[in-house]
Amino acid sequence: MKKLYSLILLPLIAVFMLVGCGETTRTVKEVQDLYNTMVEKYNEKIDENSNNWYFINKSDNEEALLKMYVTYDNSNKLNDAVRAGLTLDEMKAIIGSDYAPSEELATRYEQLTTIYARTLTMAFNYYTNWSETFFDRIDAVDSEEKEITNLYGKLNELKRELESFNTAKLNIEREVQLFGLDSEIVASSLDVFNYNYNALLEKVLNFVNYFRDLHVKYYFSNNSVINSAYAQRVYDDGLLTIANYIYYDYLKALTTNGTTNLVNVKLKSSQFDIFNHGSNNVTQFAKVYDNRVKGVVSINEEIVNSLNIEGESVDKTNATNTVKLVEVALNTFKQYFGIYTKVFDKVNMESFNNYRFKTSGGYDDFDAYASTLSPVQKANVNIMIDMEENKIYDFMSSLSNLIK
Amino acid sequence: MTSKILLRIGVTIGILALIFLGVWLIWFKPSNELEVFNNLTQLQSQNQTSFEDVLISAKERNYMEYSKTEGDVPSKVPYTFSGGENDSTQALLSAIKNYRAYMFGEFSDYERLNQTHFFGDFVADINLNKANIYSYLGFYQIYNVVDTAFEYYYSYAQLAEHVSNKDVKNINNLISAVKSNYSSFITTFDEILKMESQLTKSDDITMISEIKALYYNLYNNLFNVLKSYNNLTLNLKEFVNNYVFDGNIAYDKQVVAFDVLLNSTAQFVEQNPTLTLKDGTHAYYSFNSETKDASTFSNYFYNASVVAFVYKNIDFTTEVEQYNNLVKNYSESLFGDKSIFKLTREQMKELVNSSSDNLSNIASQYNVEYLTDLQSIVKLFFQITQEV
User: From the list B37, B151, B253, which residue is nearest A394 (CB)?
Assistant: First the structure.
């Protein structure tokens, strides 16, 4: 009989133990501490002549922005060498590599400082701008423990990824010193670095998207007064949403086995449509998020001032309507982006990239590409193309109304 | 005893069968979620392709016949019937030519072409040669616009979930109607080709009259295609809205543009315009007790340059926001019986010219709080369509 009882009890005990092994509940202070530890570890500039730092130190009177540059810009050393009247070989000896790496590598370095850096900055920007307010007031609202614990978990994942990323970064920097910029070994290490960079971007987006959702849930509602803070939040959410889109459309879509090979696109990052669209609004917008990297405040000052006017005024009404309009565009884009992410995994990226970027010779036209697809696949591709050709630009144009 | 055991076994098997059936219905019931998409695909891949092949060949053939005679200037008579020998023949030939122009977009009057200023803008905009300009007018143009909207919603239809059998049946019926109209058009066109090949004497009045009658049928066929295809697309939009976007589709620039375009097409076809031959020389169309020269048809409807670029180059961001405002706060003004799109053009004009201080009868039927938004959407409607 005892055996029978023990047989019945054993699974119950196992279940109890499993339940007991759940995630440790985390507090707001723990989230903040974890974040500060991470910033302290990675906020130092490795090279004064380059932008190889991760977090801007707040003591520099600039906001803390996460960005990871690996520019390997030799121009300072090169200029020194030129001023010293050295020959090309002598220059190479001093700067440790050919001053002009092959086009392929040069393109890849440039992509790191443009697409990757911009995407990362746009994504992390939301957390930078709103974390302080969020944590200051979170105790006053009835937040759920599970949500803070989840937030901690996502930040911890980001921190771990940052460590892997840093190892890959140090490795490639060492190899550049040893073998020069233009070598097969460096190209191979660049793949590893690129792999880590993709993973890092994904973790940043996971973390910041979750933070954004909590932030909106607890501090913003449909009845919120539209003031400058409201406008800033909408704008920052817009940047984060664009970062999510770029991650999918330009990075994830071109990633094979974890490595993104943008070189195959035969386009320099600056030529990517999203950064180089013909519309003045979008061009202006692109410039602004370039400036954003340098910590420049983005929203048009007139809009901010108008929103802060006490009482009623025409300027305030116009500014409020502009913010409302952008918010409608933001919510609209988010809905279509949700559909886009659904179909994304169903599309064969290799052939899609071959159609849009001619990565393997390309197709004569859309019909030639479509003839290789089933009706469902073609429908999915049409949704992807619509996002790429219409919806992203409409949204960016609308968002740029806040910075004009 | 044995019977009791058998009874118990029977009851047990019955209960198990019911449980199995329940589980099967919940988890494994054949889904009809892709049925609509598959039927739309079939419509597109077979019937529509055949129809469009005929439509395009008819259009090109029509243009080629004109161009063979006088370059790109439309001839007074169709190429195959050159040299009508008496007035009555000439009149019938003119009528045939006008029917064709009505359907496929050519202008019967070259002078009119030159006097219509928006053509110049159109050429400058998209740098098309005149042959293509002709092609963009008339039913062919309207069909293309509806087709663009159809393609848009068709792509989303495969993502439909938890669809109701009633709505699937409704879409299937509409698909059947379009198929039937495609088929009628193709059959009639084949008959015309056959009769024209048999026409050896240009003054064979009997045969020309029969051909004219066939062109009249062809016009009705094409009109029915347009009507049913537009109706299908409007319903497909609702299907996608309900089963892909949970009844909450986001109204961006494209969806707003399609809503206005499809509703304007619906307004046009609802009036059932008919072709008539008047004075023995010209084709006229009539609706709403009005009679218009058929050659003005393409002027009446879509503003070609707006339609061609409505999705990309025309900034109606404010109207999109206003449309969203109406969807959110006053949706009955856009959808259903009270929709502003159900108004006649005269009523629309009345609404546009109304003011909160001096409300027209039509405007007073709507919530005055949204008058400005309603007026903007109607103005967009007028921007896309064009008055005579």
Answer: B253
